[in-house]
Amino acid sequence: MTARARVWLFLVPALGAAALFVWALTGLPDFGHYRGPYGDVVNARVIPERHATSAVAAVNFDYRGFDTIGEEFILFAAVVGVTVLLRLERDEHEESPRDRAERHASIEVADAVALACIGLVAPVLVLGVYVVTHGHLTPGGGFQGGVILAGGPLLVYLAGRYITLRQLRPKGVLDLGEGAGAGGFVLIGFVGLVAGAAFLENVFPLGSTGSVFSAGTLPVINVSVGLEVAAGITLIVYEFLEQALIVRAGR
Amino acid sequence: MTDVLQALATLLVAASAVGVVLNRDPLRQAVAFAFFGLALFLLFLVLQAPDVALSAMVVGAFAYPMMTLLTLAKVKDRSG
Amino acid sequence: MNQLPYFLAAWLFFVGLYGMVTTRNFLHLVMCLGVLQASTYVLLLEVGYRAGGTAPIFKDVPRGTRAVDPVVQALTLTDVVVGVTVAALLMALALQAHKRCGSLDPNDMRPMQG
Questions:
Q1: Domain residues of chain B, as ranges?
Q2: What is the pTM of this model?
Q3: Where does A29-141 have alpha helices with state H?
């Protein structure tokens, strides 16, 4: 079947589906007139019950914490998938970084870029840690802060210091960090069981509203998720970068 | 005022989505996608969702283009 | 026409789907998938929006201010980050496909023999 015919085969049913979709959308309540009671209940009860000022974080890690465990493990599985897919195959061998550096000697990073990147590594890491630890107070949390933290190693790579970074052998630490983050979340759930309440119930002391050490398990879970997301994304970037050092036999 | 902002943000998102799809070359599309991420960030901000806006910004302007560029670099390395 | 903002979700969905169907490059496909996913985020957030409401963060805000729905925001926010990791997985698949067949074009993928 030609490409043209395939596009037409798609367009005609797609228009029908679009018409149905739009008709379904007109059945929703009017935009701006939020009806459901659940959101209002959560907004009213978040500060008295959990001493957390961010209702979104409280829903994510406390009221609906079990769903977040599932989502975190989707992320974990995707990182494992990337690692498995990009593994060293039987007919490939790894080129030593020195040879590669010689081959690419002509590619030099401009001084301004290198300076800017090295200068930004520390602020980005501090910003990431801030966003992770203040997730229960202001917008932010483990997921966003983890992605920001993963930007630190990437800036080092952009500054042309990848070979130095690689000599640190970060893969073991990254694997450990990711596992610790994912397992930590489940462990905190078990702490609830051990304390005699339900799995993942908020059993830590609640503290005073507005301070960093408040809202019970929320900051701890935020740190655990932040660790996992940061390690996971850095691992993905690392696997892609390692592909550069793999040479197919016989080329 | 809020209505005007929402209408503008909606139009920006719709236009940048078309820009992402119509750019066939992944290298150019990565930049278009970063702009799409920015438009989504503005829309989510106007819809009073700062957490989601932060997520969308970080993901759309940082993670997606970075991974696309890394994959493109590896593909070019291999075939060139 | 009070449901007009919802049509953005339909627009994003079908624009992304068209891009995926007519793609000639795996990486282009992954980013069109990103556009498709954005349609669900937009629809979720617009369902939870309340006119005149403020963000559901109550720091330095007097108690009792009407806020928008936090539940849909919680759903969307994890979804966004997980979506990018799945996109990374798809790009790794595209890289392996390139290793096997030498091209990133879906039309060049032949069914496996034997």
A1: 2-79
A2: 0.88
A3: 37-50, 55-58, 65-85, 97-103, 111-133
